[in-house]
Predict the structure.
Amino acid sequence: MKNPKSFLVVAAAVVALGTGAAFTAGRLSAQPSAVANVDIRRLLDKIGQRSEMEIELTQMAHRFEQEFKSRREALETRAKESDGITDTTERQKTRDALALEQLQLKEWATMKQQEADREQALRWENLYRSIVSEADKLSASEGYQYVIVFDGNAEFQRDRRSQSTLGQQVVEQIARRRILVASNADDITEKLILRMNNARATPTPSAPTPTTTKP
């Protein structure tokens, strides 16, 4: 009678060989993925959507500054006029009202600044989604499975107003880098710029005007 332990050892070896062969075959049959790269800074410098966004944000900031200046100057004028009020009680009442309006103006300015900050964040998020969407379409048409952001050639930024030393700032920026080298042959930045600008230039077709029959 055969030794049952020997049988189990042989069976385990056969299973191991079969599993290893299947794993090797799977690795050999796997196809390499096509990867493209994008210089995000060059992209942002050349796409019209970013320029339009910055123009609109600048206009919003200018409108806020003009309204704030106008309201502040109106308060200052009324404050000077209050000096000419001869009645002490009335003068104090006017100045108290002006002080309240000044506080309200300050609160309004804070609220507007928060709104502007939130709007700027939403605009950048929308811009990023547009980049991802167009990159996805371009990669699908070009046959790429991955599109990476090439950041190895970016200039280092140094801010002397920062609490960090210049050396720390550079070290932190180096630590955030992810792609050191990317092939120019797989650089699709200019294609993506062209695609995004064309998408903005192409007018969206308007819906046909429904016809109505008069009774």
Remarks:
- Residues 88-142 form the longest helix (55 residues).
- Strands lie at 35-38, 146-149.
- The chain is about 70% helix and 5% strand.
- The helical segments are 4-29, 40-46, 48-82, 88-142, 166-176, 189-201.
